[in-house]
User: Which sequence fits this backbone?
């Protein structure tokens, strides 16, 4: 077994250090960090979250998950896809400020269609022009793929609070009715309907609670709030313990304590579970000992603090 790559790959005091490029290639980064699919099997849902999922499954209603960024809302969908063996049946919509309800259903590339219709080469061949179909420029969205699937599916609508205000209400009708109309599909358009022999897709909607969602939308959802508690952090760390195998149990316990102490301070951007896992991975790579994390060490002198604090004002406050 080859020795571990040293943490200080970049050492400005040794600009002529040998094997710099080789060390860069040999880095061993925990696969679960930042990868929802890989880390899905390590996720451990609490009892209340499991209850909310079972309620949503029982009544066929969307599951709305709220909580501060980094608490594992998106991970829930990937965990359920892993748990039920639906890795290929998870369809995701990453919501942006320009997202519309139609993006959940399908997208019609009107620009490509326009260029194809006015292609000079096509104009010279009438037969080729006749083969231009609008449906060839339609890209199926997450819900369309879920509706046509022959297997149970999960649809993730991630960070719905980023969308324009009308978006949540605009998707209600489609989710309730299980059908929508595609005007570009065929000469006269067509209805896309979910398979009635299967239960409806499990729709998981996440929100960072940046703004309040419409009441009609909230009434139709099953709600669960992921609160970052000491128990949640401990469960997440225990599930990823192999990523910090180089740290003693005492060091991990003390790191969690200092992490929670830091969250209790009046910082603007409080670190969440995701930052805690990254921080522990860095501490392991540095070979940090419990003595470096004791309560006597000031917060600002904690090792790798930049993995936890992401705001200049917060850093100055500490």
Assistant:
């Amino acid at each position: 077994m080859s020795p571990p790559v040293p943490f200080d790959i970049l050492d400005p005091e040794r600009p002529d250090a040998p094997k710099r490029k080789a060390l860069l290639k040999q880095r061993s980064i925990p696969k679960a960090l930042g990868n929802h699919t890989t880390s899905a099997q390590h996720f451990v849902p609490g009892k209340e979250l499991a209850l909310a999922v079972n309620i949503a499954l029982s009544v066929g209603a969307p599951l709305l998950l709220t909580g501060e960024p980094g608490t594992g809302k998106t991970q829930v969908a990937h965990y359920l896809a892993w748990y039920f063996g639906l890795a290929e049946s998870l369809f995701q919509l990453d919501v942006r400020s320009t997202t519309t309800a139609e993006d959940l259903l399908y997208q019609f590339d009107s620009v490509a269609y326009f260029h194809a219709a006015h292609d000079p080469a096509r104009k010279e061949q009438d037969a080729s022009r006749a083969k231009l179909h609008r449906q060839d420029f339609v890209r199926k969205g997450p819900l369309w793929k879920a509706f046509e699937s022959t297997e149970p599916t999960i649809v993730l609508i991630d960070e719905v609070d980023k969308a324009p205000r009308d978006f949540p209400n605009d998707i209600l009708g489609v989710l309730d009715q299980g059908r929508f109309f595609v005007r570009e599909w065929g000469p006269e358009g067509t209805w896309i309907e979910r398979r009635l022999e299967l239960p409806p897709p499990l729709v998981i909607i996440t929100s960072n609670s940046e703004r309040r969602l419409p009441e009609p939308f909230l009434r139709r959802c099953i709600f669960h709030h992921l609160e970052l508690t000491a128990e949640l952090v401990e469960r997440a760390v225990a599930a990823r313990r192999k990523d910090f195998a180089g740290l003693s149990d005492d060091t991990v316990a003390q790191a969690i304590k200092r992490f929670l102490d830091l969250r209790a301070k009046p910082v603007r951007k409080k670190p969440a579970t995701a930052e805690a896992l990254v921080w522990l991975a860095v501490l392991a790579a540095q070979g940090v000992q419990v003595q470096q994390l004791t309560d006597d060490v000031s917060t600002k002198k904690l090792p790798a603090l930049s993995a936890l604090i992401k705001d200049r004002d917060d850093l100055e406050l500490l």
Summary: The two ends are 41 Å apart (CA to CA). The longest strand covers residues 202-207. The chain has two domains: 36-225, 228-317.
